[in-house]
Request: fold
Amino acid sequence: MSELRLRFTGPIAELAGADRRALLDRSVSPDDAVSVTTEAIIDLVRRDGDPALISLAREFDKAKLASLEVPRERWREALDELPEPLRSAMERAAANLVTAHRASIPTASEVVIEPGVVVGRRPDPLRRVGVYAPGGRAAYPSSVLMGVIPARVAGVEEVIVCSPPDPSGLPSAVVLAAAELANADRVFAVGGAGAIAALAYGTESIPRVDRIVGPGNAYVAEPKLRVAGACAIDAPAGPSELLVIADEGADPAGIAREMLAQAEHDPRACVVALAVGEGLADSIVAALRAALPGQARQSIVRDALQTRGGVLSADSLSEAVDLSNDFAPEHLLLVVDDPRELLADVRNTGTVFLGETSSVAFGDYMTGANHVLPTGGLARSYSGLSTLDFVRWTTYQSIDRTAAARLGDAVGVFADAEGLPGHADAARAWSHEELS
Reply:
């Protein structure tokens, strides 16, 4: 067995104030170097446009770019050259994403508030969206599908993908293949803060977008926050998270597998199990220790478990759910006797997995649900990416002449109270007209 220390252990009820705050506060603040570099890159791209992006690619990606845009033929070649098992899996994931997201397309509504007063609300697809696809040490075609396909389903007119080039001057082949499969409109070999700045403000080649979505490291997350005043973004993203609630019938080895799978994302990933039942917490810890030596990304997993990992015991499922609702995890796995019954009490989570066979890995790739989810406790106020993120709402209202006469005096009273005589006059004019 490998020696392993977990950051959080013991009964939930005995979790000290400082430890409880550390468990709940998972916000990630960039260091000064990230902030300074990000600000400089954004300013550079806003000032110099394409030449700045070409220079940044040379500096950070060791790539000499003849053009920022990747020709569509290269996407098609990348898709055609995919190994058949991978292509089949990606096509299956894409089809499932279409099915799941079509079910959540928002619809218009209209209501008669009182006779002659009608208020409506209509979802209008965004005109142009930017999807960021990480590159560098790893490429994530699944994130391309998760960003592009919901936008397409929602009816977005133009979907642009940005992904960093390798030294050849092109993004990863699997990213290009995913862009073709998801039917993106344009792909640019641009990464990091430069890509975010270009999407938010526009350059000679890259048009300004209405919203930026997609994961990335600190040099993507920080610039997204900085450009949020000029362009909408998805939820601020941090390291991966998993909270497991388990009862007496749960398999400790299965819970350990799920925790290790999410821990391998990042040494700052947060994976915690809340165990209800005599000895279950100890059994989960033992299973983690037994499985750790066989992990291919053992050093990353170990760091995550020691920094933000935990196995806590709960006196009841109710106590566990209360902590989960405060914790607001990205992923919540319910390994309990009746997960659907417990689901009714769950709030504040990016997505819930019901039962031991509902592995989080299935949701990461294949179920059709989106894996772009709020982290760092932001599931208290943000939801996972969906078609709702790719529309804006137009509200309209109609007041007929009779209703205008009826509303005029009441609105005038409001306006007088707020010291706005022009508003009062505009409203009362209709009452007076009707009376005349």
Notes: The two ends are 92 Å apart (CA to CA). The CA atoms of residues 261 and 361 lie 8 Å apart. The chain has a mean pLDDT of 95.
